[in-house]
Specification:
The chain contains 8 helices and 6 strands; from the N terminus they run βαβαβββαβααααα. By secondary structure, the protein is of the alpha+beta class.
């Protein structure tokens, strides 16, 4: 399943600042740094004076949409990609988002990091249930889908579905129901109604288990 890629630029504060300076020097093809947006958004982002925020814009071309790309300090004081927002109303698709990020990464970020010594980490834009669940749990879900095609009306199919749910909760799986729904539709080939029903049940049990843990901690 396609997902929105992430990006983290790691290093000491002076290295991060130097990396952004190198990025800015190389910007071309409709890319530019927008310091006005950087400063305007700082209060809304709740940043302290020493926290970093950098904004870059790209003009629309035949291959990409115009957009705003934002890098900001995370809790580890590294720079991470908080979002890429299109100029027009709406939301970028994963393909549109990842195209802009890949261009920014290859043209500007990687060459800058090679000069400053910053470390780059990014995801590949594709995720599967093996990224979300332990192998045993993922195999239970695959077996359920292979034999039932998503239906739970037959007792054996319901039993296999429940085995997956129990296994997922026992391992403390963190994936949200909306992502599982997308995977069921896009990768497993379930129709939207079936995917919604299964993901809703998964999320309900996940929320219940999380609330029990919170009650136990607060007791």
């Amino acid at each position: 399943m396609k997902e929105y890629r992430d990006l983290t630029i790691s290093g000491p504060g002076d290295v991060l600042i130097a990396t952004v300076a190198e990025i800015e020097k190389e910007l071309n093809d409709g890319w530019q740094r927008n310091k006005q947006i950087e400063e305007k958004g700082r209060p809304r982002a709740g940043l302290t004076p020493d926290q970093l925020r950098f904004c870059f814009t790209c003009a629309p071309t035949t291959s990409r949409k115009g957009a705003l790309l934002v890098l900001m300090n995370n809790r580890a004081d590294n720079l991470w990609l908080t979002n890429i927002v299109p100029d027009e109303l709406g939301k970028l698709t994963p393909d549109e988002f990842n195209y802009i990020l890949e261009e920014f990464l290859q043209k500007f970020v990687r060459p800058a990091a090679a000069k400053t010594g910053a470390t780059i980490a990014t995801s590949n834009g594709v995720v599967s249930i093996d990224d979300w669940f332990a192998k045993e749990t993922a195999d239970k879900l695959r077996r359920f889908l292979d034999l039932s095609h998503g239906g739970t009306s037959h007792p054996d199919d319901h039993k296999r579905w429940m085995e997956f749910l129990v296994s997922a909760q026992n391992e403390g799986a963190e994936v949200r129901g909306d992502l599982l729904r997308r995977w069921l539709i896009e990768d497993a080939g379930c129709d939207e109604y079936v995917a919604e029903e299964l993901a809703s049940e998964y999320q309900t049990i996940r929320d219940y288990e999380r609330s029990k843990k919170e009650d136990f901690v607060g007791a």
